[in-house]
Design brief:
The longest helix is centred in the N-terminal third of the chain and has 22 residues. The protein has about 350 residues and is mainly beta. About 10% of the residues lie in helices and about 20% in strands. It folds into 2 domains: about 170 residues, no CATH class; about 120 residues, no CATH class. The strands form 8 sheets. A 3-stranded antiparallel β-sheet has the order 6-7-8, with no helix packed on it. A 3-stranded antiparallel β-sheet has the order 12-18-19, with no helix packed on it. The chain has a 3-stranded antiparallel β-sheet with strand order 15-16-17, with no helix packed on it. Pfam families: Lipoprotein_15.
Length: about 350
């Protein structure tokens, strides 16, 4: 009997420790120190993750002129716009932008010649700023703002410009500076995808291109098929959305440790819980502390970093954020589970 009790105590202690490790015992509204938002797109094989620029010399240049062999081949998935256009130039106008549907990447923005446009994780969208200068620009030629026109079906207000240190104007898409990749040698190439873990093909809304993304037009475009993913909101930055594209919220009166919801009864009519989502059915969401909360009322609720998640009955369509700031306690959820309280 003593042995059985000892074994039971050990098992119970292990379970509590596991939950403690997953959720942390942080106070207030933040994540435990050292946590990072995971599930970024993988780095392509052979890419040098060193300084985030990629390539053998740290910027993606090859041993020739830095633009790769003009093979006219090497498309991301063997499909896309027709071949034969000239390789990207350092300051060539993008002209009439277009969107093509890649089997591997989803919808990708291209220039008028069919060359893939990219965004850089070390840049910022709010405010727009480029952190690719000097040798970096040889590997990643900037896209001039002049002459660029929005792709058909994409909100023209998403296009903008940022002034570079040399005074030139660079095209932005939803605030993100746009580039071409010197090693893309033909329309439909996307050799820059994942380079250094920081360079990604651009989707029509300025986010990173990925399979399953559909439609254009920015914040109100249909959601990715994942149970939980993120979108770039013009005012709030990166926020969590559910499978239908509806904004996901946090309630600051809740707690993560112990895991507890202060929204009960009638509150749940306005703020329905987010039902459990499998970890492999998410994109760009923090996985640590991604657990199901068994509520006292019998409902099962999804959490991020152990913070309970909700949607808002007052949001009527994808892209709505009518619940933001309600009562000074309800805020859109960030991919790390934190409440997004102000513009980013």
């Amino acid at each position: 009997m003593k042995t059985w009790r000892s074994a039971s105590l050990v098992a119970t202690t292990a379970a509590v420790l596991a939950l403690t490790t997953a959720c942390g015992q942080d106070q207030g509204d933040g994540s435990p120190k050292g946590q990072k938002v995971g599930n970024e797109a993988p780095v392509d094989k052979g890419a040098d993750p060193g300084d985030g620029y990629g390539g053998g010399d740290g910027y993606g240049n090859d041993s020739g002129n830095g633009y790769g062999a003009d093979s006219g081949k090497g498309a991301a998935d063997g499909k896309g716009p027709g071949k034969g256009a000239a390789r990207p130039g350092t300051a060539k106008s993008a002209g009439q932008l277009d969107v093509w549907d890649s089997e591997k990447l989803g919808e990708v923005v291209t220039d008028s010649a069919g060359f893939t446009l990219y965004r850089f994780d070390k840049d910022t969208a709010r405010p727009p700023a480029s952190n690719c200068e000097g040798a970096c620009e040889k590997a990643w030629p900037v896209v001039p703002a002049k002459g660029a026109k929005a792709p058909p079906g994409v909100d023209a207000s998403l296009l903008g410009e940022v002034t570079r240190p040399d005074g030139s104007k660079q095209l932005t898409l939803d605030g993100w500076p746009m580039y071409r990749y010197a090693k893309d040698t033909g329309p439909g190439d996307a050799k820059g995808q994942g380079v250094g873990g920081t360079w990604f093909a651009a989707a029509p809304d300025g986010k990173k291109a990925r399979p399953g993304a559909a439609g254009g037009g920015g914040a109100a475009r249909p959601a990715d098929p994942a149970g939980l993913s993120t979108r770039q909101d013009p005012e709030l930055g990166e926020i969590v959305v559910d499978r239908d594209g509806m904004t996901v919220y946090r309630f600051t009166k809740d707690s993560a440790w112990p895991m507890k919801s202060a929204c009960t009864g009638a509150c749940l009519k306005k703020w329905p819980v987010v039902e459990p989502v499998a970890k492999n059915d998410t994109r760009d969401i923090l996985k640590k502390g991604f657990v199901t909360f068994d509520r006292p009322d019998g409902l099962k609720q999804q959490t991020i970093d152990c913070w309970p998640l909700y949607t808002f009955a007052g949001d009527k369509k994808p892209g709505d954020t009518n619940g933001q700031g309600v009562g000074g306690t309800w805020f859109a959820a960030g991919p790390d589970g934190k409440a997004v309280r102000a513009s980013r």
